[in-house]
C-alpha cells in the first residue's frame, strides 16, 4: 500500500516505541511490553478498518455488514437463525438486530419467522445479497487479505499469538 | 481474566478458524491466511476496547481521552500543540478537537493560544488531569497491560510483527 494513513503523514519515529520508553522511564517496566502490545493491536485495527471501510463504501457495506452477509453465504441454504449468527460473529444481539435491519432495508437479506423458536428470526440471504457479497469479497481478497504486507511466517505467527490471546479471554475453547 | 466476553459465552469452536476453512473451501486459499490475520486483529481489538472502556468509565474517560491525557503528562511542562498531539496520537484533527473539547469541559486540560501559530492551540494538562490520568494508568497497568495473558515471548513477537505491518502501511519510518 502506497497511500498515506488516514491520520496524516508518517513521522519518522514510532509513537508506540516512544510511549514504551516513557512507560519504562516512569517506573512501569512491568507494564511497558503489554502497553506496547495493546496499543499496537489498536493501531493495526484502525489502519485496517479505515482501508476496509473505504473499499466497502461503494458496495454500501461496512465490515460488520460484510461479515454477516459472508456468514450467511457460507450457511446451508444461505440461511441462519439470528441467535446463531450472533454467536458466530460474536456481536451483541442488539447490534445484530440493527445490522440485519439495515441489510433488510437494502434487500440483501430477508427476515423470516423461525418455526422452532418464535423469539429468534431466521436471516436468509437474497440473490442480490449473494451477488454483492461475492463482489465485495473479491475486492477485499485482492486489496487487503492477499496484500497484507507481511511474510507468510509473520501472518502465521500473528494468527497463532492472537489466537492464544483470544482463547485466554474466553473467546473460544482452544 | 475470568469474565465472559461482552458478546456472550464462548462457543467451543474458533469462528476465525471456521471462516478460514470456508475461505479455503471456496477456492480463496491465497487470501485465507490474510483474512484470518485481519479478523484476529479486529477481534482482539474488540475484546481489549470493551475491557479498557469498562475500566476507564469510572474515571469519565475513554481510551482515546486517556491516551491524550497520558501524552500531555509525558510532555515537557505537560503541554503540547494540538498539531503535535494529533501527529503523536495519529488521530484526525477533527477527532482531536472533539477529544480536547470534552477534556476541557471536565477541566482536565486547558486550551491556550499558541504564540507561534495562531491556527494551532496549545493543550495544557491541569493538576486535576494529571492526578486523574495517574490513577487511570495504575488501573490499566494492573488490569490490562500487566495481565495481558501472553508469555513475554508472545508479547515481543506480537509487537514486532505488528510493527512491521504498521511500518509497511506508512505508520512510521522504520
Task: Summarize the helices and strands and which ones pair or pack.
The structure is a homodimer of 174-residue chains.
Chain A: H1 15-25, H2 32-56, H3 63-74, E1 79-81, H4 82-89, H5 93-105, E2 109-112, E3 122-125, H6 127-145, H7 152-168
Antiparallel strand pairs in A: 1-3, 2-3
Helix pairs in contact in A: 1-2, 2-6, 3-6
Structure in words:
Two copies of one chain form a homodimer. The first copy, chain A, contains seven helices and three strands. Chain A is mostly helical. Chain A folds into two domains: 15-59, no CATH class; 61-174, Arc Repressor Mutant, subunit A, CATH 1.10.10. Chain A has a three-stranded antiparallel beta sheet. In chain A, α3 (63-74) packs across α6 (127-145). Chain A is elongated, with a radius of gyration of 20 Å. Residues 1-10 of chain A have low confidence and may be disordered. At the A-B interface, α1, α2, α3, α4 and α6 of A face α1, α2, α3, α4 and α6 of B.
CATH H-level superfamily of the largest domain in chain A: Winged helix-like DNA-binding domain superfamily/Winged helix DNA-binding domain
Strand/helix succession of chain A: HHHEHHEEHH
Largest interface: A-B, 83 and 83 residues
Oligomer: homodimer
Q: Radius of gyration of chain A, Cα only, in angstroms? A: 20 Å
Number of strands of chain A: 3
DSSP helix fraction of chain A: 55-70%
**CATH secondary-structure class of the largest domain in chain A:** Mainly Alpha
The helix/strand class of chain A is mainly alpha
Overview in brief:
The structure is a homodimer of 174-residue chains. Chain A has 174 residues and is mainly alpha-helical. Helices cover 60% and strands 6% of the residues of chain A.
Amino acid at each position: 500500500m502506497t497511500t498515506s494513513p488516514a491520520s496524516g503523514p508518517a513521522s519518522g519515529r514510532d509513537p508506540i516505541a516512544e510511549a514504551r520508553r516513557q512507560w519504562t522511564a516512569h517506573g512501569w517496566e512491568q507494564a511497558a511490553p503489554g502497553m506496547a502490545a495493546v496499543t499496537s493491536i489498536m493501531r493495526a485495527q484502525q489502519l485496517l478498518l479505515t482501508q476496509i471501510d473505504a473499499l466497502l463504501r461503494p458496495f454500501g457495506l461496512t465490515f460488520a455488514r460484510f461479515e454477516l452477509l459472508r456468514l450467511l453465504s457460507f450457511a446451508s441454504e444461505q440461511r441462519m437463525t439470528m441467535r446463531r449468527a450472533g454467536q458466530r460473529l460474536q456481536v451483541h444481539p442488539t447490534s445484530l438486530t440493527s445490522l440485519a435491519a439495515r441489510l433488510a432495508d437494502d434487500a440483501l437479506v430477508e427476515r423470516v419467522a423461525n418455526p422452532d423458536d418464535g423469539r429468534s428470526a431466521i436471516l436468509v440471504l437474497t440473490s442480490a445479497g449473494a451477488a454483492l457479497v461475492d463482489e465485495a469479497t473479491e475486492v477485499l481478497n485482492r486489496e487487503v487479505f492477499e496484500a497484507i504486507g507481511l511474510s507468510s511466517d509473520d501472518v502465521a505467527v500473528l494468527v497463532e499469538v492472537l489466537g492464544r490471546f483470544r482463547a485466554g479471554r474466553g473467546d473460544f475453547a482452544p
